[in-house]
Each structure stands twice: as C-alpha cells, then as structure tokens.
Write the structure tokens for this entry.
Amino acid sequence: MGRFLLGLIIGICLVAGGAFIYFTTGMAPVAATAQPMPFERLLAKKALHAKLQADAPKTVPLQPTTQNLLAGAMVYSHNCAFCHGMPQAAPSVEGSGMFPHAPQLFTQRDMVTDDPPGVTYWKVKNGIRLTGMPSFQKALTDQQIWQVSLLLREADKLPPEVTAALVPTPAPAAAPAKPAPEPKHR
Ligand code: HEC
C-alpha cells in the first residue's frame, strides 16, 4: 500500500511538472494561428456539449414568422456578419484569422440549421469561452437573441425578402488621403 501511494504521488508530480514546463517554457500554443494543443479540440467540444445538454432551453418562445426573421436579419447584419459572413459575400477574413475559426453561418459547410434554436440561443447569449465568440447578453434583448437564433435555424430556407435584407452594408467611404484643397481666393 505504502509503495503504491508513493508511486501515485510521484506519478502526479511528474504529470504536474510536465504540464508546468509545457506552459512556462513557451511550448504551449498561444497565437490564434498556432496548431491546437493535444486534446484541446476534444476537451473543449466535450465540455461545451455537456453544458448545452444541461442548460440550453428546450422550448422556443417565438415563431419563425417573416417578421421575426427580418428582425433577426437586422440583428445579424449589425452584430454577427463581421465574423460569420453574409450569404452573398466573400467569407469574413477576420473570422478566418481566429482560433478557432468563426464558422461562416450561411455556407452549406458551416450552417447550424440542424441545431435546435435553444442551443444557438445559449451560445449567442453566453458566448463560448476561450474563442472569439462573444456573449450578447448585455448587447441584445432576449427577443433579439431568439430572432437571430431562428434566422440561423432557417438559414437554408429563408423567404426571399429576408435573404434580400442580408446584404453587406457598404464600407464607410474612405477618408480622403489629403485634406481637400483650400478654395482659391482671387
Ligand atoms: C468577434 C467575432 C464574432 C462575432 C461578432 C460573433 N461570433 Fe459567433 N462565433 C465566433 C467564433 C470564433 C465561433 C467559433 C467558436 C467555436 O468553435 O467553439 C463562433 C461560434 C458561433 C456559433 C456556433 C457555431 C457552431 O458551429 O456550433 C453560433 C451559432 C454563433 N457563433 C452565432 C453568432 C451570432 C448569432 C452572432 C451575432 C449576434 C455572433 N455569433 C457573433 C465569433 C464571433
């Protein structure tokens, strides 16, 4: 028994020491562009999944009416498109510079149309820790969070007027490089 305990303690110390060296000598990835740590993806996925199972609301208080989807499109254009892209536009460059990448929620590959709206609602409300996904609890009302969650649920079958509302807003006109010339006085 004594030997076993000693072995256990030495084992724990070795693992803790190894982790300490890994994190304090610059071996652990810290750049957004770096490769994931061993098991990082798996553990992060499992932790999120377990939390969502327990916490995501199961009932949806709103219907996906055109009016709610249009409101969701407004919320999306102003708060989400910067990272998650727009249906008829090139993918967000900023979103692809993050670790993990921001999924492009209007592409076939990344759509969340299979997720229950309650799951999307939870992610938008609470954000996803240690990723670029912010919590919108303070920025949006509960109703707005449901509206944008329904929009993403219906992303592959939106009424045309809702798709039409999802167009990138033009970038603000570039500031003139030089101050405008003074009007000539004569
Ligand atoms: C600053 C960038 C940024 C903004 C703004 C942002 N997100 Fe995210 N979002 C991310 C990143 C990065 C992830 C990936 C997180 C991960 O892989 O776990 C993500 C993940 C998600 C997911 C999960 C996707 C999946 O495949 O499970 C949903 C849903 C989502 N965001 C919705 C939204 C909505 C809706 C908004 C606007 C209200 C928004 N996001 C705004 C960066 C952003």
In short: The pocket of heme C is lined by residues 75, 79-80, 82-84, 98, 100, 102-103, 112, 120, 123-124, 128, 131-134, 136, 148, 152 (CB under 6 Å).
